[in-house]
Design a protein that fits this description.
The protein is of the alpha/beta class. It contains eleven helices and ten strands. 32% of the residues are buried.
Length: 308
């Protein structure tokens, strides 16, 4: 009951505040009273939370809060979303935390090429890397390739000290961070040295055909249409690709079209390609980040209407 209700009933208080019903706990019994629809929702929530506990899922305020959102939205059960642990490493499991993330993970499983479009904090890179590591562990692919355009560097790369790899390394850091968290300090350097995992700027993909690989293109909003076409045509037999980005954070020169923006229109009727759209509800950072993302979205829509 402590695992279910939290220390000092902190999780129970979250549930009570979210529903118009009365919850009484006596020993191992929970009694729910109130409007019929609300009591049914609360009962279902407790059933789902107990099922998550039975699967070894640790309950906290964040998990219970997201479970409440799912129950209220009636779009999916918490066990279907939070219980979908598709990678276990370093003592913790990786699972989607929102319905949008669940749909994204399912798209990666089913498609050959998956596009994920959404704001920062929605898990686009993290979940893609987790899916790639799982595919490598299951021997579905023989190597991982993680790439992103080094747009921010521009012409300044030549003026930075060090070798080319030392110059581009800061732009690859988000990918290294995700890999490190899932694979650890011992395994990752060995796999990088063998070439089983390759982290490189997008320009290094030109002229290659990549077979039996899981390829992730990160920050794809900063690709030109030509770069996007070049990347997508690198796919060989037995390969899978995930392309992700935030089309509200384009760093290309003014007037330059983003390859991620137009590719949705170009490839929309091709089998084997899926597009996952993530939004403010899928942000899994601090609650204030959700509010910031939503505020920018509303501001952008108002500005577009005013300009139109």
């Amino acid at each position: 009951m402590v695992a279910l209700l939290g220390q000092r009933d902190e999780l129970l208080k979250l549930i009570e505040a979210a529903f118009a019903s009365q919850i009484v706990v006596r020993g191992n019994e929970i009694t729910i009273s109130g409007p019929e629809r609300e009591t049914e929702r609360v009962a279902l929530l407790f059933e789902e939370l107990i099922a998550l506990l039975a699967k070894g899922h640790e309950l906290n305020a964040s998990a219970v809060g997201r479970s409440i959102e799912l129950i209220k939205g009636e779009e999916a059960r918490p066990t279907e979303v939070l219980g979908d642990v598709f990678l276990t490493g370093r003592g913790r499991g990786v699972a989607p935390k929102t319905l949008g993330q669940k749909q994204y993970v399912d798209a990666i499983r089913n498609a050959i090429v998956t596009f994920a479009i959404g704001p920062a904090g929605t898990g686009k890179t993290y979940l893609a890397v987790a899916a790639a590591v799982r595919a490598l562990e299951d021997k579905q692919v023989s190597r991982l390739i993680l790439t992103r355009p080094a747009v921010e560097a521009g012409e300044r790369l030549g003026f930075l000290p060090g070798t080319l790899y030392e110059k581009i390394d800061p732009y690859m850091k988000p990918l290294y961070d995700a890999l490190f968290e899932m694979m650890g300090a011992d395994a990752l350097p060995r796999l990088l040295e063998r070439g089983t995992i390759e982290v490189a700027p997008l320009a290094f993909m030109r002229g290659r055909t990549v077979n039996n690989s899981f390829i992730i293109l990160d920050e794809a909003q900063n690709t030109t249409p030509e770069q996007m076409k070049m990347f997508l045509t690198r796919l060989g037999f037995g390969s899978k690709a995930v392309v992700n980005g935030d089309i509200t954070q384009i760093d290309l020169p003014s007037g330059q079209t983003s390859g991620l923006v137009i590719v949705q229109e170009i490839l929309r009727d091709i089998d084997g390609i899926e597009v996952a759209h993530l939004g403010a509800r899928d942000v899994v950072r601090h609650k204030i980040v959700q509010d910031i993302v939503e505020a920018y979205r509303v501001f952008g829509e108002q500005r577009a209407r005013a300009d139109g």
